[in-house]
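Q: Start with the shorter request: fold the first protein.
A: Done. Sequence, then structure:
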Amino acid sequence: MDVRLISSADVADHDTPLLVLPVHASEDEVSAVIPAGVSARLTGTYAVDDLKSRVGHPVWAYLGEGPGPRRVLLLGAGPREEFDAETIRRFAGHAVRSAEAVGVPTVTAYLGTAWSIGAERAAQAAAEGGTLAAWRFTEMKEVSAEKDRVELSDFEVMMDAGVVGDAERGVTSGGAIGRAANFARTLQSRPGNVATPSHLADEAVRMAGERGLEVTVMGPEELRRERMHALLSVAQGSDEEARLIVLRHRGDPGGSAPLVLVGKGLTFDSGGISIKPAKGMEDMIFDMSGGAAVIGAMQAIAELGVPLNVVGIVPSSENLINGQAMKPGDIISSREGKTIEVVNTDAEGRLILADALSYAQSLEPAAIVDCATLTGAVVMALGHHAAAVLGTDDDLVSELQSAGEESGERCWPLPLWDEYRRQLDSDVADLVNVGGRAAGTITAACFLREFVGDYSWAHLDVAGMAYGEGKLSYQRKGAAGFPTRLLVEWVRSRAG
């Protein structure tokens, strides 16, 4: 889908099958946002009493033949003072869904002047929402309903002529970020028999070639040389070999210390010998969501030319069962040199991340941020409304929280006190991989902290946010791409 900016000066004669206008409170406010040349044609085409400001509430007007739009959708957009970035994303998402419902290839979303967040941010939010809403995962099915569906080919963001420069930058950013999140969602959605560690690596290599990123893929031999025995231990229960994917964006020719993004790329998680229940195990294709988000974020960072050095690292494996599979009670080593007593093979994500985080240290980073579908406990703590963020640097945690608010991918801090680390004490190794039922999200983060040295580090546990029912207008059931947008926002905020 193509996303572009349109000047509102052209709307009266702009050929579009669907123009979407925001409704904030009253008929008078609707009239105020109707561009000149359209209002006269709207007279008598809709019932005033039907207008509601509730976000997503639709009132249709059919204008028939003639210049300009053929249909107008008066779409609830909430109170004028609350027309912020997230509301604009949802407004744009509703616009796209409405276009799909009536089977038109183009939709034009008019933002008016109600926003108070600046033209660039408003345009970015609209482009993100429209791009995200248009995504569908259909590459593996062929049914008549899909064959007959009209594909949305164009999403137009319409803004006043006086803000075109700022708005153009916003549309460019929003389109790039939306496409990156959609790429992550596609990777997430591919089943385990397709999206293996080697497939994930191949997709990263392909994307890197298209976006001008440097890429390195390590296989078993290289991983053994790097002493990544924790990652290799998880993979030894599968016929699919482990991979470590490293993507480099050199945005600062001055050679400043890089920001490092690390994402868990567990392409299928059976739980290993500590096997998961059968019910819902099909969703374990989403256990690579952190890795998909990092790959997607690196795509957007490269496309937008962020003037910083950024490295994305994705450790990838499967967690399955064969005669060589890791067993409860095994003691394994790690790149860091620390030994780990494995008491639950279903706590494998922290093992592959341990080696990746240790490798991140070798890059002498300015900061490390990892993201992973790490614990079910985070869903108990925060539900499906926010990820957890924990870290060694309070300023970094605050930055990520702010980036979450800006991007619409929120996170909330949890403590990382030393008292929790004691739950990881082992009688036979340097630490145990599970600290018991209490505070599971925190003890998992405590485990990761053992592998980041003295570097500024934060961990995002996204298990409650990576996939879901798709209740927002710009989401679909299944993959959410979380936290692609959050990571991009954070990196861009560091760039200033």
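Q: Next, the second protein, separately.
A: Sequence, then structure:
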Amino acid sequence: MYFLDFTVDHSILLLSILLVIGVLTAKFSTRLGVPSLVLFIIVGMVVSHYIYFDNALLTQGFGILALIIILFDGGVQTKWKDVKRVVRPSVSLATFGVLITTVLTGVLAKYILGVTWLEGFLFGAIVGSTDAAAVFSVLGTQNIRQKLNSTLEAESGSNDPMAIFLTVSIIELIQHPDSPILSLILNFFWQMGIGLVLGLVLGKASVWIINRINLDSSGLYPVLTLSLAALTYGISTFVEASGLLAVYVMAVVVGNADLTYRHTIVRFNEGFAWMMQILMFILLGLLVFPNQLLDIIWQGILLSLLLMFVARPLGVFLSMMFAKYSSKEKLFISWAGLKGAVPIVLATYPMMAGLENSTLIFNVVFFVVLTSALLQGATIAPLAKFLNLSQGEKETVPHSLELVSMGKTKNEMIELKLVEHADISGKSLEELHLPEDILVTAVIRDDKLLTPRGNTQIFAGDTLYILISKRKRDKVKAFFQKNTSDGDEREGKTS
């Protein structure tokens, strides 16, 4: 039974119901040990019994928009000090790792699916990358070693461009077999190089705009930030560079800068990314007809297992051959290569191109994503514990601070965590002799909120909320974080 005559009111009602169901499934997904994206997709597949939907173009467009927002949210929350130590292995995974996985999976797909060599490699390219939405979602609830966490986040945020390039290039070769290979290779370097440069430049420009513009409401700052992310994607694709890479790099630059209204921006982006993730996976579920999945069930299971246990591990171990990671760490990275929205969105490309086996490829990709999310996503935490790569329970922030917009005032509230061995550690607030225009309004220690008084002592690890003049931001941070002993040690080493 299909309901075809939907009015605007009916559509709004349906959308609201789907969002409520999505939020509730996200709440229970952790209890069930199943990634939320699986439940979102299942919701979409159930709804597809009542609503006929086969618009691949709409799915592709909405999927790309959702990926921009999800990548931006993940990039903003990525700490550069953690990522810079794993840039080389992450880049190697995002390029050589994806290429190796694509080739191996393509060979397997050629014989298992009975397609041509190019169609096999096309399938390999589509499922060759890990998915940022899935990885950010799963890792966000786990307390994995920081090196591994940063490696996986950086890989998932930067390997989409490689997968997109390979997918588009192979489709081009299928449609135009005489296309010169050299031009495709040069196009790859152009996309990656210019995408990286634009991400850095537009990230710096975005920070400058956000901190310099004086908006009437704090609620406009996250809107501005997301607009700048979308603008980064648009400019990059306009010059035929990698838009998703540019967005991720821009987000990392913005997230690691000293931003005004940081909390407002981060919280809004997080909520909006969740909404887009829910709608995207439900929409992807709508595009699938469950009865068609039954026709390719054994091919899907076989390819999923071979991808998880053969192609991905070989891609990881070969691309990280010279990286300083233990075998256990490489094994974990292999298993944590979750598939998600990106492969399904990429699977719409052959459908848009009108390729002969596009429906077969889409259905098998969908099956691979489901099995990957179910099997790998649900076992990441147990595997980390088994390999002794887990750091116990994930530390949660015991507090949150919501501030009333200060409009056009020249003051702001900053959050500052006192570093270890800071000069002022152990001193009381009255001993600091702070100027009258600098006010410590709250001290967070462990899970307790302390009301600051003159005799209140502050220690390393404390989180301070300080009301200051915007122009004094840098000086105040330098004062509270000053560590003379480190400076002396550095001087001693250099001398």
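Q: Describe the second briefly.
A: Confidence is low (pLDDT under 50) at residues 396-400, 402-407, 487-495. The chain has 21 helices and four strands.
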